[in-house]
Amino acid sequence: MISPSSIALTGFIAWALLLLVLMEVIRTQLVLRGKVPANGFMPDNSGLSPFMQRLARAHANCIEGLPIFGGLLLVAVVTGRTAITDQLACVFLAARVFQSLIHLASTSATAVTIRFAAFAVQMAIGLYWAFRLLVSA
């Protein structure tokens, strides 16, 4: 049976991949329509629509968090201590996806506050996991 921790780790990776694929599909369309040359993209999508800039940042947020949060999940899975991470694994993944969706939707003050709250949930869960994994070693 696959643990919730394994599902959350795979889901986190899949979510980051989905954001990347979405960004590249849109970029490909821009190139094919002659709106942007193939070598005309910046990593942060500057010069493109505000949505594309938010998409680049949402993807970067996932990539920045993956080594930390994904690493904790991986430690739990590899060491057989998923009992520590399983209870909050789906909550963590939901907070990650929610943060990205809010990021894509808006940069209003309210949206930024909600986005930070979703990230704060992830940080709290990560700290809890790190502490529990360390003391159970």
Main beta sheet strand tally, sense and closure: none
Mean pLDDT: 96
Per DSSP, the total helix count is: 4
Q: What is the string of helix and strand elements?
A: HHHH
Report the end-to-end length measured between terminal Cα atoms. Answer: 24 Å
Secondary structure category: mainly alpha
CATH architecture group name:
Up-down Bundle
Task: Report the uncertain regions.
Answer: none
| Rg of Cα set | 17 Å
Describe this structure in words.
This protein is 80% helix and 0% strand. With 137 residues, it is mainly alpha-helical. It has one domain (4-135): Membrane associated eicosanoid/glutathione metabolism-like domain (Four Helix Bundle (Hemerythrin (Met), subunit A), Up-down Bundle). Helix 2 packs antiparallel against helix 3, helix 2 (50-78) packs parallel to helix 4 (109-135) and helix 3 (82-105) runs antiparallel to helix 4 (109-135). Its main location: membrane. Pfam families: MAPEG (PF01124). It comes from Rhodanobacter humi. It is found in: Membrane.
